[in-house]
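Need tokens for this chain, all 242 residues.
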Amino acid sequence: MSRWLLVNPRAGDGSGIEELCAAAAARGIDTHVLRPGEDAATLAREAHADVLGASGGDGTMAAVAGAALERGLPFVCIPFGTRNHFARDLGLDRSEPVAALDAFDGAERRIDVGRANGRLFLNNVSIGAYAVLVHHGWRRVLDAVRRRQRLTVDDETIHTRVLLVANNAYSFSGARKQLDEGRLHVYTPGGEIRVAERVDVGARTERIGVAIDGERAELATPAHFEIEPRALRLLLPSGPGA
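Here are the structure tokens for all 242 residues:
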């Protein structure tokens, strides 16, 4: 069985890449270090492999996971980014990317993925202040915090500074304990306002800036969100301590 790993050197501070690539090679894993101008999703779609892995932040994870889902292949998460929310929710030690390589020979489980106008997300889609930060930096965030946006959620009008559409429920600690519930959870700063398999979010503009798994994006409105229950084949390290 051939295994392939995409490494994003721009994730985190970039340290430890040589060690990770050497450890992957010792396990017979073909490694590709992402170069400027290359597209992670395209590389993953074209990789000659039976298992696809990604080492980087949440945006890199989502791109390669989407290709794995399209091809019906198992996916491996190797934490290597700044925050690695997805790796945290999987229970992986984010300080030990080399140890996570054991997942290439690990146990398979099925987890949910979300879709925003068809685009896959693993964690969440944020509208409002955080999305402004991702798009424009700190200069515009204060304006976004002061001003509430007028949005509709399934035709119900709300005014909020932040709207979060999440793949499964978040706890008060900011983590998810379950990744196969099969539900989207919609949050504002006041708390959870919707639990559903599909959600439509409208705005006053034809397009709206968002952050999808921490990556800058735009969505046509009304934006259609849905969940694909247990769609992604995920490999995780097995054995004691996993």
